[in-house]
Each structure stands twice: as structure tokens, then as C-alpha cells.
Amino acid sequence: MKNTLLLKFFEKGDIWSVPCDIALPCATQNEISEAQAKTLVRNGVMAVAEGANMPSTLEAVNVFHQNQILFGPAKAANAGGVGVSALEMAQNSSRMSWSFSEVDEHLKKYYEKHLLKMPVSLQKSMVMKEISS
Q1: Residue limits of the Glutamate/phenylalanine/leucine/valine/L-tryptophan dehydrogenase C-terminal domain (predicted)?
Q2: Which CATH class is domain 18-125?
């Protein structure tokens, strides 16, 4: 193993021109434009999962849908962090201590509640898998 890392700097926006299987926009809102989405599709992206608050423009999302790219919108893909933060606040305000399994159960209920409120078109565009540990 080498002792140094070989890293390449990409100017703002250029990262989405790199061929990849999965794109994970996790920094800022409107990070992926329509043109960048088209570049991702052209370069063979198979899935996009948003880890920031609305990092893809509406036009970019339309490009993903039109090209049948698996798409995890921020509302669902990033909901775990928001849900756990809400659970932490609830736990702290009640001065209770929950086990990992209790937090996990509360988070599952949070996902079920909020996923059911998503428009059907978003539900159909997502592949939901339960990951067991």
C-alpha cells in the first residue's frame, strides 16, 4: 500500500463529469443542474441518491426520471439524519435514554409515516430495501 494518496481536484461542478455508477450529491442545494444530469446519464450513472437538501434541480430530477435512473430524493434518502435528530431532541427533552434498538424502532416508524406521505410518483421511482445488520 502506498503511503500517499493520489487525489485530483475538481473545479465547482466538474465532479459530475466524472464517469461513475452512483452519484451522491451531498453538499448544497441545486448542486446538479439539468446539463450535469445529462452528463451523468451519458457517462453511465445507474443511481443518484441525494444526501443534501434538494441538491438536484427539478430539471435534473426530470432527466433522471426520463432516463430511468434509480433516484433517491432527499426527502427519503436524507430523512434518516433528520429523523434521528428529531428523535434525539425528543429523547433529550424527556430526559430518557433509549437503546440502539429503541432508536431503530422509532426511526422505522418515522420512515413509514413520512414515506407514506410522499407522492406515489416518487415512491415508484425508488427501490426500497431493508438492510439488516
Answers
A1: 2-130
A2: alpha beta
The per-residue pLDDT for range 60-77, each reduced to its tens digit, is: 999 999 999 999 888 777
Q: The C-alpha cell of 39 is what? A: 452528463
Q: Which cell numbers in the block locate residue 9?
A: 481536484
Which residues have CB under 8 Å from 109's CB, separation 6+? none
Give residue 71's Cα distance to chain centre.
Answer: 8
- Residue 62 grid coordinates: 426530470
Q: Which helix (H) or strand (E) holds 104?
A: helix 100-115
Mean pLDDT of the chain: 79
pTM score, two decimals? 0.63
Report the DSSP pairing between strands 47-49 and 22-23.
parallel
In sequence order, what are the residues at sequence separation of 6 or more whose Cβ sits closer than 8 angstroms to the Cβ of residue 124?
Answer: none
Domain limits of the chain? Answer: 18-125
Specify whether the CB–CB gap between 78 and 56 falls below 8 A.
Answer: no
Burial 68-93 (b: 16+ CB within 10 A, else e): ebebbbbbbbbbeeebeeebeeeeee
